[in-house]
Amino acid sequence: MENIKMDTQDSKMVSSTPVKKKLMDVKLGELPSWIIMQDFTPEGIAGTFQRFYFKYH
């Protein structure tokens, strides 16, 4: 019997978390999907204001 070695490093892994792009990095054609991916929950909106406050204040 031969020993068969499976090479698992060539398999691509798909991430379930989308990469966050800043609005200025989004192309016009990507804008609708970018808007859909944003977090419009109360916690998400509060987090956005909190990041803005600590970054610019």
Automatic annotation (TrEMBL):
Membrane topology recorded in Swiss-Prot or TrEMBL: Single-pass membrane protein
Keyword entries, A-Z: Acetylation, ATP synthesis, CF(0), Hydrogen ion transport, Ion transport, Membrane, Mitochondrion, Mitochondrion inner membrane, Phosphoprotein, Transmembrane, Transmembrane helix, Transport
Gene Ontology MF annotations: proton-transporting ATP synthase activity, rotational mechanism
Pfam families: WRW (PF10206)
Biological process annotations from GO: proton motive force-driven mitochondrial ATP synthesis
Cellular component per GO, a single term: mitochondrial inner membrane
InterPro entries assigned: F1F0-ATPsyn_F_prd
Compartmental location: Mitochondrion inner membrane
Signal peptide: none
Organism domain of life: Eukaryota
Family affiliation: Belongs to the ATPase F chain family.
Classification via PANTHER family: ATP SYNTHASE F CHAIN, MITOCHONDRIAL-RELATED (PTHR13080), ATP SYNTHASE SUBUNIT F, MITOCHONDRIAL (PTHR13080:SF16)
Protein purpose: Subunit f, of the mitochondrial membrane ATP synthase complex (F(1)F(0) ATP synthase or Complex V) that produces ATP from ADP in the presence of a proton gradient across the membrane which is generated by electron transport complexes of the respiratory chain. ATP synthase complex consist of a soluble F(1) head domain - the catalytic core - and a membrane F(1) domain - the membrane proton channel. These two domains are linked by a central stalk rotating inside the F(1) region and a stationary peripheral stalk.
Quaternary structure, from the entry: Component of the ATP synthase complex composed at least of ATP5F1A/subunit alpha, ATP5F1B/subunit beta, ATP5MC1/subunit c (homooctomer), MT-ATP6/subunit a, MT-ATP8/subunit 8, ATP5ME/subunit e, ATP5MF/subunit f, ATP5MG/subunit g, ATP5MK/subunit k, ATP5MJ/subunit j, ATP5F1C/subunit gamma, ATP5F1D/subunit delta, ATP5F1E/subunit epsilon, ATP5PF/subunit F6, ATP5PB/subunit b, ATP5PD/subunit d, ATP5PO/subunit OSCP.
Protein name: ATP synthase F(0) complex subunit f, mitochondrial
Species in which this protein is naturally found: Nyctereutes procyonoides (Raccoon dog)
Taxonomic placement: Eukaryota, Metazoa, Chordata, Craniata, Vertebrata
